[in-house]
Amino acid sequence: MRDDDVRDPGSPDAGVVAGLYWGVRDSFVRYVLMNPDGGVYGDDGVETDGDATFRFPLRRASHSGGRWRIEFGGELSFVAHAGLLAVRISRPVVEIGRDQGALSVSFGEERAIIARLAPAEAALIDGGWVVFPPLPAELTAAGVGLFGDVYSAGEPLDPLRIALPADVPGAIGAARAAGGAA
Question: What pLDDT, in 10s, does the model give residues 30-40?
């Protein structure tokens, strides 16, 4: 395991599980699920709260030079219309700093930035977690293709939420510098 790999502290009273929490796009999820053969499937650790928010498990995170790189695992698939609609969101990565942010996903060995994120800084909470405020997201041109050219670049996606254990290298210093409570 590398030094920048992170582990969920697993504290039963923490009430937080490390990961990326994202509803993708509410209208899209509803559309898929209203189809008789529509389904949403999580694999490799992706979970749902039962209310259309999906949690991608944290794989590793690092903070350097005022920027975060946060890698998540898992795959989320949306399928409908006998497979004619098939959207796969795999191994998302968030890169974010004070000036800009981006969400990319994996297409095999390639990655594509599917959303631009509002810049944000993390905050330290409860002495053991680093969290970001809800991150507004806008679809990019590459993201348009992922969703089958149904939405236009610049259209909003659901905000992203991120929770990290405070033992991520550089996390506590970054959160304190941003004004987070210790």
Answer: 999 999 999 99
Residue bearing tokens 């959303």 = 115
Residue 118 belongs to domain spanning: 19-177
Q: Is the dihedral of CA 76, 89, 118, 70 positive or negative?
A: positive
Structure tokens of 76?
A: 């989320």
Stated pTM of the model: 0.85
What is the enclosing helix (H) or strand (E) of 157?
strand 156-165
Quote the number of domains for the chain.
1
DSSP-assigned letters across all residues of 7-60 = -----TTS----EEEE---HHHHHHHHHSTT-EEEEETT-EE-SSS-EEEEEEE
Residue 13 falls within a domain, yes or no? Answer: no
- Residue 150 within a domain: yes
10 in a domain, yes or no? no
Q: For strands 93-97 and 101-107, give the pairing.
A: antiparallel
DSSP symbols for 79-147: EEGGGTEEEEEES-EEEEESS-EEEEEEETTEEEEEEEE-----EEETTTEEE---EEEEE-HHHHHHT
| 156: helix, strand or coil | strand
pLDDT tens digits for range 142-178? 999 999 899 999 999 999 999 998 887 665 555 555 5
